[in-house]
Each structure stands twice: as C-alpha cells, then as structure tokens.
Amino acid sequence: MLVTMSNKELHRPPVIQAVIEKRLRRRDAASQLDITEREVQRLVKRYRESGC
After folding, report:
1. Which of these, 45, 18, 52, lies nearest to 28 by C-alpha position?
2. 37 contacts 26 by C-beta, under 8 angstroms
3. What's the burial of 35, exposed, middle or buried (CB within 10 Å: 0-12/13-18/19+)?
4. Per its UniProt entry, which superkingdom is the organism in (predicted)?
5. 3-class SS at 20?
6. What confidence tens digit (pLDDT) does each residue in 7-17 have?
7. Residue 35 lies in a domain
C-alpha cells in the first residue's frame, strides 16, 4: 500500500516530537505548523497512542 504525504505532513512528526519532549511549546508548534493549539494537542495524543 502506497501512502503519499504532503510537505506539510512530512514536517509534522519532528515538531510533535519536540512538543512531547518539552523542547517546544504547543503554541509555538501550532504557529510552525499553521494549525491551532487544540489540533496540536490532538496530534500529540494520536502520536502517543500510536506508540511512535
């Protein structure tokens, strides 16, 4: 199965990882990714649940 990702999506994992490691605030991550803080929170939750 081939999965394609946009450049925006490829940039997300390192930013979300930085939030999890407390090297970056949710507010700053939201600004970098051009999404809301709430969406960053959702991505962090999904990232943790996936075990990555």
Report:
1. 18
2. yes
3. middle
4. Bacteria
5. helix
6. 888 889 999 99
7. yes
Domain of residue 26 covers 8-50
Write down the residue that tokens 């970098």 correspond to.
32
Predicted TM-score (pTM) of this structure? 0.80
38 belongs to a structural domain: yes
Residues in the chain: 52
Would you say 47 and 16 are in contact if contact means Cβ atoms under 8 Å apart? yes
Backbone angles phi, psi at 38, to 5 degrees: -65, -40
Q: At what angle do helices 7-20 and 26-33 cross, to 10 degrees?
A: 170
Cα–Cα distance measured from residue 16 to residue 23, given in angstroms and rounded to the nearest whole number: 10
In a domain, residue 17? The reply is yes
> How many structural domains are present in the chain?
1
